[in-house]
Amino acid sequence: MRYLPLTDEDRRAMLARIGAASVDDLFSDVPAAAWTAPEGFDALPPHATEMAVERQLSALAARNVPAGSVPCFLGAGAYRHHIPASVDHLIQRGEFLTAYTPYQPEVSQGTLQTLFEFQTQVALITGMEVANASMYDAATGVAEAAAMACRITRRKHVLVSGGVHPHYGAVTESFLRYTDIATEVLDPNPLGIEDLMGRVSEKTACVIVQNPDFFGNLADLSALAAECHALGALLVVAVAEPVSLGLVTPPGEMGADIVVGEGHAIGSPLNFGGPGVGLFASRKKFVRHMPGRLAGETVDEDGRRGWVLTLSTREQHIRREKATSNICTNSGLIALAWTIHMTLLGEAGFTKLARLNHMKAVEMVERLEQVPGLQVMTRQFFNEVLVRLPGHDAAGIVETLAERGILAGVPLSRFHPNYPELADALLLCATETTETQDIDALANALTEVLR
Amino acid sequence: MTGDMATVTGNRGLVIEEPLIFEQGSPAKCGVDLPDPADKPDRLGGLARSGAIGLPGLSEPEVVRHYTRLSQKNYAIDAGFYPLGSCTMKHNPRLNERMARLPGFADLHPFQPQATVQGALAVMHHLSDWLLGLTGMEAVALSPAAGAHGELCGMQAVRAALDARGEDHRRTVLVPDSAHGTNPATAALCGFKVRGIPGDATGRVDVAAFKAALDDTVAGVMLTNPNTCGLFERDMVELAEAVHAAGAYFYLDGANFNAIVGRVKIADLGVDAMHINLHKTFSTPHGGGGPGAGPTVLSAALAPFAPLPHVVAEGDGVRLIEHIEGDMQPFGRMKGFHGQFGVFVRALSYMMSLGRDGLRQASGDAVLNANYLMARLGDTLTASFEGPCMHEALFDDRFLKGTGVSTLDFAKAMIDEGFHPMTMYFPLVVHGAMLMEPTETESRETLDAFCDAVLALAAKARAGDAAFFTEAPRHTPRRRLDETKAARTPVLRWEPPAPARAAE
Amino acid sequence: MSTLYFTEDHEWVAVDGNTATVGVTDYAQKQLGDVVFVEVPEAGKVLAKGDEAAVIESVKAASEVYAPVTGTVTEGNTDLAETPATVNDSPMDDGWFFRMSLDDASELDDLMDEAAYAAFVASLD
């Protein structure tokens, strides 16, 4: 077996050295009732060659329609961007790919310096003072932000806007379900008309919003931030499309206290939604309440600059049940991909990529506005909008267009099956990968099926 | 590096000093070429960013060289032996990487119509079949993102089951003193109080103390088996029966599943929930700290409470269930989208490669390798407990007593010899712990070279050469780093240097 | 002139009339190593004996400082936030954590005097 270096001769010699008759003898502490003979696993297949595994898995992959093989307008929290070839080359270097969490800093300076660069980039684009070394994804990051806000304010009520991604809201609700924190998730808010200001009170730990929101709307959050701060609450802002930060006023400049982002769209392919990487930034004064790992600058014995994981007393292996979070790992490799892609883009590339996305979306919207029977609902947006198809079931339209080889967006009914008034609503997104001919194909097909 | 050894640049051959990206490049440079955007009026509603962000600009060759140089400052499994106890640092086959990158897997959007992702849903279903086949359990929740997240999944299912039974007096969770720190942190998140259970002289749970603690306030028990001392809890079946007789649930921390995979079905131990670290047992790469995946298997008692989404076979296809249907009572949702799909593909590729027979051979070799370390080192290093160990060997620092060398110093000297140190100071139940997990993917030659080095170091320590250890490591890109300075005055991001005071 | 008492959690309590000043002992700071962060209670905080009153962290460990007696905090040593190293350099003097009122003098009967604490520490190693 190609992954196992021991030969039978090795095994015999090692058993002799140990003083055991067989490998099974080493398991003598396992009670007989819990021991399974090899035949007990006969329902599972035996080992296979590399060639055979590749053939079987390739056959499964061939049953899917890759998003890049057809015109694709899907967003809703997962965005398809072009990834430079050097990103994947670099993250596959074994020194990055097959290293553990950098607990031994003398032999982990590569990972640690990268995390320090990552933290700086995240802080810069969100307009915040500090950022951590990443979370699992944005959904879990939002949940952690809510818990963090409760620690800081010593309050127990979390208010989640109806404009936040439904998965972020659901994960936050689940995460806090058995704590003494109450999570209130407002109804979906496709038109951006909910009254958050009127709901914040002296009991509110934080208000969680998203910008652009789940339906594509861009909002100025400054007044909401001021209202939160006047009442002693924190403003948490989620960003599902990190590329937007290259063009849109960052949450930090609007008064956000904690910013959580989904980073996968920079550096990583869609991967059917995972793994992602949670970007997590806050004000410096809150840093000791932050979950997750932090890389910090220091010097070595010879006075040379270097990096270590720091402020680790917040973590569970020291504080156990008093830890800020039970989370152990971050999303190191996806954070690395993010940082490499961001470094390749730089200031000029990142801002240009963002403008390119917005202009593609403007082009898409201008074309869709000519489709009879289709209403574009979102007025100010980055690269995604909500449209309505009055009198039609959006999910059915999407199925029909998929059969014609077009991935025509995400119907809201996928998230909100119990809101019949949203059955005709569809989210459509354009990125730099969207071609004019893709937009034409979408508009023509919609014109036909809506007739 | 001082004196005659110093170089002009500070570089040392292949180890090249590398500044931060923020200290390189210029705003005029860019590492990607993008088409020019159309010049239409924007639809941002006046919310365009103003002013520069402050990101540096580097060309592609500069970026490639920067991260290549940084990579060269890392130790990794690809480069050498990594016996980090409790972490299962085994070889990461590259076939798994190639499979995960097939466009039919990597380039799938999570919200494509299900008819266009049947192969991906089949991957999730096959993975479930493997995990259930290996554990004998009733159901599996695939979505938890890592081990601690899987613990949360299992314990939230316990809490949901208790709530469904209306038993709100059960709010205590028993956790052995030797447990991973995530266990008590997880229990606290589920609204439980933690009560510690002492170990006995053999390094296992004290059965009498355990049974005495089981009363009708106990919601559940969190146990690791094989435990964090590398030993199998012999009385596990009896303990599980006592837990169930007391009306509580049994959570097994699956961090050490690699020792028993293909040999012991978890269901036969009386377990109600266990997370499985795909990044340990099933060889998906650790990536310098994630991403992992922590699917959690559940017993029939907890299965109805599994979080969404679910994956079910229907007809000749597979369906993803994202909302409550029928009588399911999910406690909620743990993760955005459908879990760590890219990790699922890698783990499935690994399981298919090894197969049922290879996995059994792998756990056997992992345990054999650990016992070989124990046999070769046990007379010199002080083994903490007697008897065969499982997949990891635990030593303590008694052999260093009076030498002036600590466990940490010893570990740093191992780095100079080209080995990654073992896990140190964990578990907390022995003094100066050294926990070594060789895994099955190390050859006998590697183990012998490691043992020879460790035995020579032990002799050196006992010969009184403390400075050799306290000044180690000497041959690494950086020597020991000042963690006190880092924590007292945290510098967590690069800041532009204060502008030179102009025109004075 | 104050009287010095000690707890088994390695805290010292200097009692002067109705006021108790609380800190951690030299033994405690040595066990913790370099102290990197201290959080002290604000004036006005009401503490029952045994309540968590302050937090002390070193690079590798974190622990709580408990109220050795019942009373109300009158002053926290806010300098420690800026210079946590003072706890290492001067644990019994400049490194004090907080002052509180002494509501029930009989609680002092449960604490150790200097000689008893010295014997207690000697028994630990």
From TrEMBL, chain A:
Annotated Gene3D superfamilies: Aspartate Aminotransferase, domain 1, Type I PLP-dependent aspartate aminotransferase-like (Major domain)
The entry's keywords: Oxidoreductase
Catalytic reaction equation(s): N(6)-[(R)-lipoyl]-L-lysyl-[glycine-cleavage complex H protein] + glycine + H(+) = N(6)-[(R)-S(8)-aminomethyldihydrolipoyl]-L-lysyl-[glycine-cleavage complex H protein] + CO2
Coiled-coil segments: none
Glycine cleavage system P-protein N-terminal domain: residues covered: 1-445
Family, similarity comment: Belongs to the GcvP family. N-terminal subunit subfamily.
Protein name: Probable glycine dehydrogenase (decarboxylating) subunit 1
Automatic annotation (TrEMBL), chain B:
Region of interest called Disordered, as start-end residue ranges on this chain: 484-504
GO MF: glycine binding; glycine dehydrogenase (decarboxylating) activity; pyridoxal phosphate binding; transaminase activity
GO cellular component: cytosol; glycine cleavage complex
Transcription is among the record's keywords: no
Known catalytic reactions: N(6)-[(R)-lipoyl]-L-lysyl-[glycine-cleavage complex H protein] + glycine + H(+) = N(6)-[(R)-S(8)-aminomethyldihydrolipoyl]-L-lysyl-[glycine-cleavage complex H protein] + CO2
Pfam families listed in its UniProt record: Aminotran_5, GcvP2_C
Aminotransferase class V domain: residues covered: 167-287
Matches recorded under SUPFAM superfamilies: PLP-dependent transferases
Protein EC: 1.4.4.2
Location of the Glycine dehydrogenase C-terminal domain: 363-461
Top EC category: oxidoreductase
Record-linked PANTHER family: GLYCINE DEHYDROGENASE (DECARBOXYLATING), MITOCHONDRIAL, GLYCINE DEHYDROGENASE, DECARBOXYLATING
Protein's name according to its UniProt entry: glycine dehydrogenase (aminomethyl-transferring)
TrEMBL record, chain C:
Cofactor(s) listed in the protein's UniProt record: (R)-lipoate
Keyword Disulfide bond: no
Gene Ontology biological process terms, A to Z: glycine decarboxylation via glycine cleavage system; protein lipoylation
Entry's Gene Ontology cellular component terms: cytosol; glycine cleavage complex
Keywords assigned by UniProt, alphabetized: Lipoyl
Every Lipoyl-binding domain range: 19-101
Coiled coil region boundaries: none
Keyword Phosphoprotein attached: no
PTM sites of type N6-lipoyllysine: K60
Cofactor note: Binds 1 lipoyl cofactor covalently.
Superkingdom as given in the UniProt entry: Bacteria
Pfam families linked to this entry: GCV_H
NCBIfam families documented for this protein: gcvH, PRK01202.1
Record note on quaternary structure: The glycine cleavage system is composed of four proteins: P, T, L and H.
General function of this protein: The glycine cleavage system catalyzes the degradation of glycine. The H protein shuttles the methylamine group of glycine from the P protein to the T protein.
Family: Belongs to the GcvH family.
Protein name: Glycine cleavage system H protein
Organism: Roseospira navarrensis
